[in-house]
């Protein structure tokens, strides 16, 4: 037992490098295993919609102060993220599609990427590709409407310069949330790690 737990010596590392054929076979076997897992239990489909968020910096801060613009962008982006995941927005999405709760949407199915000045990507994962596309589209539209309401209301929390326009909702969601290549790479890396441990700790000469 103490021999297994001992730190590898220089001889062990040399022997590890010499076993490149074993590493290669292990990586190949791991990639094949990852492919098999992908085929047997494939990941969900991912639908995506895009909303173009424009903060209109030149109107909000015409004096072109970099410091104020930075804090303005950070503050309003944080507000927009809260709106995107708010109960009001997600309740509209859940009511439109049915069969899903707000908690499920927030914790499992929805992902928001690239928040900032420009395209915001609203992604949704579902086993049914059509439903994934509809879910992403419904979320993007609900967000854009909520932003518009906050902007036009006198008591709204957002600056009135901000606009949010849905620009893409026609993603057919034919792509999986995780690609086959990712499964193969993960399997290969796992096999390489296990192969290295096997060579270092379980094949030591007496």
Number-wise, the strands total 4
Strand numbers in spatial order across the main sheet: 2-3-1-4
First and last CA, distance: 13 Å
Poorly predicted regions: 1-5
Largest sheet report: 4 strands, antiparallel
Oligomer: single chain
Envelope shape? elongated
Beta content: 5-15%
Helix content: 55-70%
Average residue-wise pLDDT: 82
Structural class: alpha+beta
Radius of gyration: 25 Å
Question: How many helix segments?
Answer: 9
Elements, N to C (H/E):
HHHEHHHHEEHEH
Report on this structure.
- The chain has 206 residues and is an alpha+beta fold.
- The protein is built from nine helices and four strands.
- The protein has helices spanning 2-5, 10-18, 20-40, 57-60, 66-84, 87-97, 102-109, 129-152, 180-202, and strands at 45-54, 110-113, 118-126, 163-168.
- It has a four-stranded antiparallel sheet with strand order 2-3-1-4.
- A hairpin with a 4-residue loop joins strand 2 (110-113) and strand 3 (118-126).
- Helix 3 crosses helix 9 and helix 6 (87-97) runs antiparallel to helix 8 (129-152).
- It starts with a helix and ends with a helix.
- The relative contact order is 0.21.
- Residues 1-5 have low confidence and may be disordered.
What characteristics describe this protein?
206 residues; alpha+beta; four-stranded antiparallel beta sheet; 9 helices; 4 strands; 60% helix
Task: Summarize the topology.
Elements: H1 2-5, H2 10-18, H3 20-40, E1 45-54, H4 57-60, H5 66-84, H6 87-97, H7 102-109, E2 110-113, E3 118-126, H8 129-152, E4 163-168, H9 180-202
Antiparallel strand pairs: 1-3, 1-4, 2-3
Helix pairs in contact: 3-9, 6-8
